[in-house]
Design goal:
Number of domains: 3
Protein name: LysR family transcriptional regulator
Domain HTH lysR-type: 1-58
Order of helices and strands: HHHEEHEHHEHEEEHEHEHEHEEH
Structural class: alpha/beta
Family: Belongs to the LysR transcriptional regulatory family.
Number of strands: 12
Radius of gyration: 24 Å
Low-confidence stretches: none
Keywords: DNA-binding, Transcription, Transcription regulation
Distance between the termini: 54 Å
GO molecular function, one term: DNA-binding transcription factor activity
Length: 299
């Protein structure tokens, strides 16, 4: 039995399918199957039932999975104890939301490459629920998205927060004087769709202020939301760093009369069944580099 065989078994067991597991290990599906087959031969029993379209764990495989996880975790801890600084190698696949990708993600990647030069970093950016889908299916090592996860299989740790400012344009506001919150019923609200993490704080804000927009225009991209507001097609809120820059340029105006929204907490997320020490190293680097005021080349 080898660590490579145990890795093949572990990832094949927790990922959506063998193809995802092979991709995580940067090997072919045939190499993955070979390693699992060698492990099964050494055990004298099957770990996977391959009669169905998707391989599933046998009762023995299900019984041995937590032991394989502990052995792999022990190997990581052994390497940590062998030196003062463990240089991780292989692949690190992580997911982020759009806002992170446009602000501090480059600094985060630089910090990972500085501390772990042999680790190949592969970021994936998308809306939060799609990032969580990939994390839950085993395609990602961890994720950094807005709001703690509500999924039982995913653990969350807060690493920072984003503050927002209400903005609009002279075109959207017409000839009004100072725009009051009550006038929101006469305006189009430009925002992200209902499955975004910011919708919870928007709903709380609307409820607290007993308000309702006249019309809603939603899009799943912060950049698109900023562009739609800048075009004068409605009002909305943006990360404060973006809002301040666009207002300084004269492209938008702050809606100073609008009460502020609550900040959105951003979390480092990982699968609860994944106890690798590497994840704690990545979380610490994320805490050190998180900065939602970092300049964006897109604004």
């Amino acid at each position: 039995m080898t660590l490579k065989q145990l890795e093949a078994f572990y990832w094949a067991a927790i990922c959506k399918n063998f193809a995802v597991a092979a991709n995580r290990l940067n090997i072919s599906v045939s190499s993955l199957s070979k390693r699992i087959g060698e492990l099964e031969t050494s055990l004298g029993a099957q770990l996977f039932n391959r009669s169905a379209r998707t391989a599933t764990l046998t009762p023995l495989g299900d019984h041995l999975l937590p032991h394989a996880k502990e052995l792999l975790r022990g190997a990581d801890l052994f390497m940590q104890q062998a030196g003062t600084h463990l240089n991780y190698s292989g692949r690190c696949c992580f997911g982020v939301g759009e806002l992170t990708s446009w602000t501090w993600m480059p600094q985060f990647i630089e910090a990972i490459q500085r501390d772990h030069p042999d680790l190949r970093v592969e970021p994936f950016a998308d809306v939060g629920h799609l990032v969580e889908d990939k994390l839950e299916e085993g395609e990602l090592d961890f994720a950094i998205i807005g709001g703690p996860s509500s999924r039982p299989a995913i653990a969350s740790s807060t690493i920072g927060q984003v503050e927002f400012s209400w903005v609009g344009t002279r075109r959207a506001l017409g000839r009004r004087g100072p725009t009051l919150p009550a006038q929101l019923s006469e305006l189009t609200l430009v925002t992200l769709p209902h499955n975004s993490g910011v919708i919870r704080i928007l709903d709380e804000w609307l409820t607290q202020n007993r308000l309702a927009p006249g019309r809603t225009l939603s899009c799943n991209s912060w950049g698109a939301v900023a562009g739609i507001i800048r075009q004068g097609l409605g009002v909305g809120f943006l990360p404060s760093a973006w809002a301040q820059l666009l207002c300084q340029r004269g492209e938008m105006v702050l809606l100073a009369e609008f009460p502020p929204l609550a900040p959105l907490q951003y979390c480092f997320e990982w699968r609860r069944d994944d106890t690798r020490p590497m994840l704690e190293s990545m979380r610490k680097l994320a805490v050190e580099t998180v900065d939602f005021h970092a300049p964006s080349c897109m604004i």
